[in-house]
Amino acid sequence: MSLLSKGKRSKENPNNISGQASSFLSMTAIKPDEVEPLREYLQGFRDRKERPFDKVPGTHMARFVIVEKFHCKPSYKQRKPETLSCASLCFSSNLDGSIEDYLDVLCDALAPEAQEIWGRCCGSPAKCQGKELKTYLRHNQVNSGFFYAAYPNATVEDVKRTLDQRERLMAFATQHQGVPAEQLQKAFLKEFA
């Protein structure tokens, strides 16, 4: 399923777009007593081998990062040091199509997880789902300074299809080593034509 929607994309910051792909980043302050419980909940995805973003079509990559402080070094040549008053949750995703359409799907598909995640953040809606969650994430959106997509014109489905084709071709090549050319050609056409 492609989430591509030209009309909604025209309203986006162009720095969040690369080809058909978009970039989304939100940064939300975490309630002070919820930092460790949130960290444990997020770590649980890895421990349980859960992949919640599999429920959100069009997700090339998504991650959560808890940022407790910025590291300001003189070598960074910042105009002024930046600090955080509390730990923040950064959610980033590279996605197919428009951010608007993607967030509609995400805010419904991840409703149970969203309550456990953004429900631990300052100013989150009482029910972290649907339009309220989307409004919250958009309010806390940070635009990209620059976004580069490795495959700007390939959707998630295009990438999966190509990887599947690659695996099939590798298996074919391995199984048909040493086969005479005429027989190899017939087998190839039967498998891939």
User: From the coordinates shown, what is the CATH architecture of the largest domain?
Assistant: 2-Layer Sandwich
What is the number of helical segments per DSSP (H or I, 4+ residues)?
A: 7
Structural class estimated from helices and strands: alpha+beta
Q: Quick check: average pLDDT? A: 89
Q: What fold name stands as the CATH topology of the largest domain? A: Alpha-Beta Plaits
What can you tell me about this protein's structure?
The structure is a single chain. 40% of the residues lie in helices and 15% in strands. It is α+β, with helices and mostly antiparallel strands and 193 residues long. The chain folds into two domains: 6-139, Alpha-Beta Plaits (2-Layer Sandwich); 156-192. A four-stranded antiparallel sheet has the order 1-2-4-3, covered by helices on one side.
Sequence-ordered SSE layout with sheet pairings:
Elements lengths: L5 H4 L7 E2 L2 E9 L5 H13 L11 E9 L20 E9 L2 H11 L1 H7 L12 H10 L16 H20 L5 H12 L1
Antiparallel strand pairs: 1-2, 2-4, 3-4
Keywords for this structure?
193 residues, four-stranded antiparallel β-sheet
Quick synopsis:
The protein is α+β, with helices and mostly antiparallel strands. The chain has helices at residues 6-9, 35-47, 99-109, 111-117, 130-139, 156-175, 181-192, and strands at residues 17-18, 21-29, 59-67, 88-96. Strand 1 (17-18) and strand 2 (21-29) form a beta hairpin.
